[in-house]
Amino acid sequence: MDGSGQNNPNGESWPRLAGLDAGYIARQLQAYKAGTRQNPSMQAFAQMLDDQQIADVSAWFASLPATAGQSAAAQGHSEELLKRGEQLATEGDWSKYIVPCSSCHGPDNLGAGTVFPAIAGQHFGYIRDQLLAWQQGSRKNDPQRLMATIAERMSSDDINAVAAWLSSQPATAEQ
Ligand code: HEC
């Protein structure tokens, strides 16, 4: 109801949609319809929506205040993991040609325009699963393979680390 989604580290996590850019949400629904982004539950729901309904539901979720993620302590992530995650998100790792997430996703990873979604305060399980989906090729809708290229350079430890750190960051500048 509040668009906060749900973090299920051992199952399928559902993303926070509240406060995301409307154009971004709409493009994702179109991608599910087109099959360039694959997920059994979402593909079925997206098929039921026409263009107007996609625009309306996207505008609704975009209008909701961004809900906070979970603190690192509550999630039980180790200091070492969080440190590596912060490094990847804010500085990158040039030895692996990984540019900082913030270079595209905005200074605090709170999103930039309609192309680069907010990922700070997003759920751990969802961030991890998206990076894995790009690695495995089940998500192919990113412009110029911007995300696939990065995901392919990340180890599973890197993915867990960046998902852990980002998920425990504020989801808005005010939080
Ligand atoms: C070169 C630019 C660029 C960089 C650097 C980048 N991203 Fe992205 N990212 C994108 C774009 C573009 C999208 C939207 C893809 C789409 O339209 O489906 C995206 C989408 C995502 C999503 C999906 C969010 C959602 O709600 O669906 C996640 C998760 C993500 N990026 C994580 C990361 C992480 C973690 C890093 C750093 C390790 C990173 N990104 C670095 C460009 C970038």
Automatic annotation (TrEMBL):
Residues 80-170 form the Cytochrome c domain. Coiled coil: none annotated. PROSITE patterns: CYTC. Keywords: Heme, Iron, Metal-binding. InterPro entries: Cyt_c-like_dom (IPR009056), Cyt_c-like_dom_sf (IPR036909), Cytochrome_c4-like (IPR024167), Cytochrome_c_Oxidase_Subunit (IPR050597). Transmembrane segments: none annotated. Pfam families: Cytochrom_C. PANTHER family: BLL4483 PROTEIN (PTHR33751:SF11), CBB3-TYPE CYTOCHROME C OXIDASE SUBUNIT FIXP (PTHR33751). This is Cytochrome c domain-containing protein.
